[in-house]
């Protein structure tokens, strides 16, 4: 058991080093040696766990998506009670935005990794599965909102889930690339506006 725990700890250590290095240097300029140096281990140890840079990158992507999933789960398990489906969606989608240093780093890496999905079928599969799981979770929440009367019955849960993901991704992209016009306060407010419009009662004045 101890060996397994140490093995996982080392893999986690290498994954964190990969995230930090790619975030600073970019994917094209990152080497196994860079990652090993950042992790404080030998290149040989990195190669023991990952036989190629492609394997290391795939593990980094998997690690990144796992962190995002953890944050989403913590929305329900957190100390503050969730009062409604709208409240749950507010909190859940906000975890997907780059609103702190850790998420800025992860999502900067995400932008670096996305082009690789066009050439690497395995990374494309991983990205597709992660996106599909997110769409499923959001669709389920929106269906629940309709059932509970929070959301108008004419809403299409799957279509609205896609629109919500596109909104979050667009805000993330502009925050990381465009700069001051999409600062943290602005993108948080824009997400709230999107949800306000989604949950608005069409019969209200």
Overview of the molecule:
This is TetR family transcriptional regulator C-terminal domain-containing protein. Residues 8-68 form the HTH tetR-type domain. There is one protein chain. By secondary structure, this protein is mainly alpha-helical. The protein has two domains: 1-51, Homeodomain-like (Arc Repressor Mutant, subunit A, Orthogonal Bundle), CATH 1.10.10; 61-199, Tetracycline Repressor, domain 2 (Orthogonal Bundle), CATH 1.10.357. Helices cover 74% and strands 0% of the residues. α1 crosses α2 (32-39), α2 packs across α3 (43-49) and α5 packs antiparallel against α9 (184-199). The longest helix is centred in the middle third of the chain and has 27 residues, at 121-147. 20% of the residues are buried. The model has no long low-confidence stretch (mean pLDDT 87).
The first-level CATH class name of the largest domain: Mainly Alpha
Number of helices: 9
Characterize the overall form.
elongated
> What is the CA–CA distance across the termini?
63 Å
Biggest sheet descriptor: none
CATH topology of the largest domain: Tetracycline Repressor, domain 2
Please give the radius of gyration in angstroms: 19 Å
Any idea how many domains? 2
Helix content: over 70%
Protein name: TetR family transcriptional regulator C-terminal domain-containing protein
Keywords: DNA-binding, Repressor, Transcription, Transcription regulation
Pfam family, one: TetR_C_6
DNA-binding region: 31-50
């Amino acid at each position: 058991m101890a060996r397994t725990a140490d093995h996982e700890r080392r893999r986690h250590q290498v994954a964190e080093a990969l995230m930090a290095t790619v975030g600073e240097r970019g994917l094209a300029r990152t080497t196994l040696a860079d990652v090993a140096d950042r992790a404080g281990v030998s290149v040989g140890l990195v190669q023991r766990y990952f036989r190629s840079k492609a394997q290391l990158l795939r593990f980094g992507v998997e690690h990144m998506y796992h962190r995002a999933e953890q944050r989403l789960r913590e929305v329900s398990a957190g100390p503050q009670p969730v009062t409604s489906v709208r409240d749950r969606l507010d909190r859940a989608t906000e975890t997907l935005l780059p609103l702190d240093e850790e998420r800025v780093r992860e999502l900067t890496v995400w932008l670096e990794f996305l082009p690789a999905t066009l050439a690497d079928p395995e990374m494309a599969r991983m990205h597709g599965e992660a996106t599909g799981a997110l769409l499923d979770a959001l669709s389920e929440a929106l269906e629940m909102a309709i059932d509970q009367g929070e959301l108008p019955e004419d809403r299409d849960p799957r279509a609205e889930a896609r629109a919500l993901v596109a909104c979050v991704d667009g805000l993330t992209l502009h925050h990381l690339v465009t700069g001051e016009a999409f600062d943290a306060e602005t993108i948080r407010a824009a997400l709230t506006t999107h949800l306000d419009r989604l949950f608005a009662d069409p019969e209200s004045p």
